[in-house]
Amino acid sequence: MRLKPTRTIQADLLLHSPHEALPSYHEDWTLVKGRDTDPEKWEEELKLRDARNRMIHEYLRDGRTVFYKSSGDSMWPLVQANDGCTFYPIQAATARPGCRAVSKEASEIDVGDIVFCQVQRSQLYYAHIVLWIEHDYWANEPKYWIGNICQRVNGWCFREHIYGILIDVLVEWQNRFYARPHPKSIYEKVKDLVEHHRWSPHAKSLCEPSWGEAAAAEAP
Question: Who has the most CB within 10 Å: 3, 51, 113, 210?
């Protein structure tokens, strides 16, 4: 999933509407014009993605909420291209001394959650799914295995490597925003369906928003 930080206010002022972000922040500025087969285009996009991911890391680490529009299909249909994604900093990221975010209870991280993290040992950033959790004997703490909807593993994380958790997925249509089901609530069903048919129509239907109810007021 391609990421772009768009929020710069504190996490205690949780953002309930994508309209609180500047319109220019709704676009993915890491995309470079040109052919996908062009190695120079791909190299430039990787540089921009790395810069953006470091910004997201910094915002979440400081207890800030991040909103961006997604692209790519690594988590389709849970999160689809152009969906508005809101990541909230987890408690472990905001409990550091001197952090400006308000204190809050520990954030629970479960299988099916989508987290923004830095996987080990590659140190690469991902906004991907917690595939399974095991107890690490030597570290004496949970170890989170991260990957995409097809169960391809990117790496593992301890809690200190997870900076944010996805709390909201919105679809924009005719200047209104509609909420998809929370990914964790349907993860197991969708995972099984895409395992047998990657582009399963049934899986897609499970992830459709409730079109009768807008998740946010009409854009000004």
Answer: 3
**CATH number of domain containing 49:** 2.10.109.10
Q: Which domain holds residue 58?
A: 18-206
Q: Say which amino acid occupies 29.
A: W
Tell me how many domains the chain contains: 1
For the chain, which residues score pLDDT lower than 70? Answer: 1-31, 42, 91-107, 213-220
pTM: 0.80
Q: Is residue 4 part of a domain?
A: no
CA distance 3 to 30: 8
**Can you tell me the distance from the alpha carbon of 162 to that of 148, in angstroms, rounded to the nearest whole number?**
16
- Nearest-CA neighbor of 173 among 106, 218, 113, 125? 218
Q: Which residues are CB-contacts of 34 (< 8 A; sequence separation ≥ 6)?
A: 40, 41
Q: What pLDDT digit, counting tens, does each position of 117-160 carry? A: 999 999 999 999 999 999 999 999 999 999 999 999 999 999 99
Two structure tokens written together for 99 = 């952090």
Assess if residue 214 is contained within a domain.
no
Report angle CA 114, 120, 122 to the nearest 5 degrees: 110
10 in any annotated domain: no
Residue 118 lies in a domain: yes
CA 78/CA 171 separation, integer angstroms: 12
The rounded radius of gyration (Å) of the Cα atoms in the chain is 17
Over residues 109-118, the pLDDT tens digits come to: 999 999 999 9
